[in-house]
Specification:
Shape of chain B: globular
Number of strands of chain A: 0
CATH architecture of the largest domain in chain B: Orthogonal Bundle
Order of helices and strands of chain B: HHEEHHHHHHHHHH
Oligomer: heterodimer
Structural class of chain A: mainly alpha
Number of helices of chain B: 12
Helix content of chain A: over 70%
Order of helices and strands of chain A: HHHHHHHHHHHH
Strand content of chain B: under 5%
CATH superfamily of the largest domain in chain B: MetI-like
Largest sheet of chain A: none
CATH class of the largest domain in chain A: Mainly Alpha
Structural class of chain B: mainly alpha
CATH topology of the largest domain in chain A: MetI-like fold
Strand order of the largest sheet of chain B: 1-2
CATH superfamily of the largest domain in chain A: MetI-like
Largest interface: A-B, 82 and 81 residues
Distance between the termini of chain B: 44 Å
Number of domains of chain A: 2
CATH class of the largest domain in chain B: Mainly Alpha
Largest sheet of chain B: 2 strands, antiparallel
Radius of gyration of chain B: 23 Å
CATH architecture of the largest domain in chain A: Orthogonal Bundle
Strand content of chain A: under 5%
């Protein structure tokens, strides 16, 4: 083997090593969490409120807060996200305004989440007087994930073949009928993937919630959208930042539950994608 | 006929109105941050803010020099980019040039899982795994340190760098590879002398977008890197980033309209300007590079 080929092999194996390392990092992360947290995940852990005593602490408040947030944010962000994507892809002609709106969406997608927190604090919590309520939290989250849903829906709508539209028009359908009865149903799998991605963001995001003042120590379950709340990631943050070993165990337990929620969300997405996918991007 | 026409234009304008929400979001961010920053700068000089070297807004005597926070953020960003850029590019090269279709279909979802893990979980990982490992290697390192923060942010931006670089390499015409191989070049020579130079603009754009992501990273660095505003180049010391400061203030009980409250918006404004500029630059570079290729 000559010099050049030796270099080539070294390079190739370095790349392979880096890939293995990246996968190993994920493995270590998940292994570490399961190892430290599995013994804490019990029925009581799900049913108890946070407590000063690690043995009695649970995630009931955080879990319900996260479920409320997921539901409300989905309700707010999904229709607006899909409609915005339809407007951009199917209705707007190429123009300066469209280009500007498109750039705006991709910039919003790159805005740090904590800046959304500052926005929510000023507009929803203070300006509109919602206080530290679930409404304020889910409106902030909705703005945060809107770009994610718009971009994913746009890609999915773009992948629907032109022939579908032409066939519908040929049969005498109006534009809104073509869009809502042919194009949108055909792009459901891609849109669902975007929605799940967005909801995973909602379940895992904590910085904006801390900024708008979601509570870190809650011993009640929110009864309605105007109640104050906590959320799983906030609970995890709170427990992680304490020095005692037991609280780290609790944090790992809560992470297992959070990852469980994210995993089931993604399972739904995979199922829908496999079941309904007709056109691939 | 008339009724049907009306239905169509009604739908059109209803859809357009939803677009206003994302347009207004940007305007609202600019307005909110602008207004509160204006209030802040009516009490604190801009020059003191951007050139002061002491950040003590919560304790008397108060001091509002933002440089320690900028230094903390820069340290984390620089460290994480140093780790994640070579790794991410190597992963992308492997996926494109060495891996077969099957392997690719296994590795890409694994990277997506890594990308989908919440930031607070990475913070926990940094505290309970990375920092103890660092401590056993460098016993003098502090419990909260910039290195741990940089490593964990590096892990977080790795999937993004890998996937965007992968896109860039995939957009290169195959004739480039075929030409190089026909001349007898090895994989290594083709990649380093043909493919990487050909996609340099795109990789530059990826770097810019990754840096912007790293600047905005919050919970992981708050947990790993500490809350000590500190002008230092020493990775073993505790620091505070721009984002971590906002979290620190938000966790405390701060009066609305007070100067502590306003500092969040001034710091947030700085974050906004930095990430916004980088994002615009990054997206512009990508679309221009794409145009040249086509």
């Amino acid at each position: 083997m000559n010099h050049r080929h030796l270099k080539n092999s070294i390079f190739k194996y370095t790349c392979i090593l880096v890939v293995i390392l990246s996968i190993a990092i994920l493995g270590i992360l998940i292994g570490q969490i399961i190892q430290q947290g599995h013994s804490w995940v019990t029925m009581d852990f799900l049913k108890n409120f946070p407590s000063r005593l690690p043995s009695r602490a649970g995630i009931k408040a955080g879990l319900w807060g996260t479920l409320w947030l997921l539901g409300l944010t989905a309700l707010l962000a999904i229709p607006i996200g899909i409609f915005s994507a339809v407007a951009l892809e199917e209705y707007m002609r190429e123009s300066k305004i469209k280009k500007w709106l498109q750039i705006n969406v991709s910039n919003l997608a790159g805005l740090p989440s904590i800046v959304y927190g500052l926005l929510g604090l000023s507009i929803f919590v203070r300006g509109l007087g919602m206080g530290r309520s679930l409404w304020a939290g889910s409106l902030t989250m909705a703005l945060l994930v809107l770009p994610v849903i718009i971009i994913a829906s746009q890609e999915s709508i773009r992948a629907v073949p032109k022939t579908i539209r032409e066939a519908a028009y040929a049969l005498g359908a109006r534009k809104w009928q073509v869009v809502f009865m042919q194009v949108l149903p055909a792009s459901v799998p891609g849109i669902m993937t975007g929605i799940i991605l967005a909801l995973s963001r909602v379940a895992g995001e904590s910085a904006p919630l801390i900024v708008i003042g979601a509570l870190t120590f809650v011993n009640f379950v929110p009864q309605g959208p105007s109640d104050s709340f906590s959320a799983l990631p906030i609970q995890i943050f709170n427990w992680s930042s304490r020095p005692q070993e037991e609280f780290h165990g609790l944090a790992a337990g809560a992470i297992i539950v959070l990852l469980g929620i994210l995993f089931s969300l993604n399972l739904v997405a995979v199922f829908i994608r496999e079941r309904y996918q007709r056109y691939r991007t | 006929m008339l009724k049907k026409l009306n239905a169509d234009s009604f739908v059109k304008w209803a859809l357009y109105s939803t677009l206003l929400i994302s347009a207004f979001t940007t305007l609202a961010v600019v307005f909110v941050i602008g207004r509160e920053s204006f209030n802040f700068f009516s009490q604190v000089g801009i020059l003191e803010f951007i050139s002061g070297t002491r950040w003590e807004p919560l304790l008397d005597p108060k001091s509002f020099g933002v440089l320690p926070l900028v230094c903390g953020t820069a340290l984390v960003v620089f460290g994480s980019a140093l780790i994640a850029l070579p790794m991410g590019i190597a992963v992308a090269i492997f996926l494109n040039e060495f891996a077969g279709k099957k392997l690719r279909r296994i590795i890409k979802p694994i990277l997506e899982i890594l990308a989908g893990i919440p930031t607070v979980v990475f913070g926990y990982f940094a505290l309970t795994f990375i920092t103890p490992v660092l401590k056993s290697v460098f016993p003098s390192i502090q419990v909260f340190n910039a290195l741990s923060g940089a490593i964990v942010v590096g892990i977080m931006i790795l999937p993004m760098i890998a996937s965007l670089t992968d896109d860039a390499l995939r957009d290169l015409p195959n004739t480039l590879r075929e030409g190089a191989y026909a001349l007898g070049a090895t994989h290594f020579e083709t990649i380093t002398q043909i493919l990487i130079p050909a996609s340099l603009a795109r990789i530059g754009a990826v770097t810019i977008l990754a840096i912007s992501r790293a600047i905005g990273e919050t919970m992981a660095v708050t947990l790993a890197a500490g809350a000590t505003p500190n002008i230092t180049l020493n990775f073993s010391e505790s620091i505070q980033t721009l984002t971590a400061y906002i979290v620190q203030v938000s966790l405390g009980d701060v009066q609305q309209g007070g100067i502590e409250y306003l500092t969040c918006y001034a710091v947030g404004g700085l974050l906004f300007v930095m990430t916004f500029t980088l994002n615009v630059m990054g997206h512009k570079l990508i679309s221009r590079a794409r145009m040249v290729q086509l």
